[in-house]
Specification:
Elements (H helix, E strand, L loop, with lengths): L5 H22 L3 H24 L4 H5 L2 H7 L4 H30 L7 H25 L6 H28 L5 H30 L1
Helix pairs in contact: 1-2, 1-5, 2-5, 2-6, 2-7, 5-6, 5-8, 6-7, 6-8, 7-8
Length: about 210
Amino acid sequence: MALRRSTDVLTPLVFFVIVVSLFPLGVGPEPNLLSTMAPGVIWVAALLATMLSLSRLFANDYADGTLEQLTLTPHPLTMLVFAKILAHWLLTGLPVVLISPLLALQLNLQYENMGILVASLLLGTPVLSLIGSVGAALTLGLRGGGVLLSLLVLPLYTPVLIFGAGAVSTYALGMDVEAHLSLLTALLVLSVIFTPWVTAIALRISLD
């Protein structure tokens, strides 16, 4: 259904590309500085691109009444919510992961660090979608919900940002990144277990 609205798919990806591309223009073309900033820049841009599409995660279903019908089906709402979150990541997070090495070259990130960058994004971007779904459900149908959504999820995104960008920076310094990737994996597992259930509860509250 999202693919029928191509703008919903392309907007976060174009936003991600623009944000990353603007940094060299703002801070200058100095290669060492860009290389140092690259992990943080890419991760912040990925976080913002994910947030850009969160407000539409359940909005269309809420507007046309589909969401109410989903709550009445015999299928567990938690599993339906998880399917929606998975679709959101496939259309928003995965394209960001795939294009990130190309943009990292623009920021002078070394080739040997690309694998860790992609690995950290593969582990971290699903967490962004999972955590963001809770905020999207809580702010569903509220006037000015986009601002409130940002205030709700940005503090929860902080650990993912720290461990994701930190993994790449640590690897670039020749240090062990197992701790960072393990923590990202733990966050992903906990998010998969708990956030669909919490999101389903938040949707029922918003519908009531």
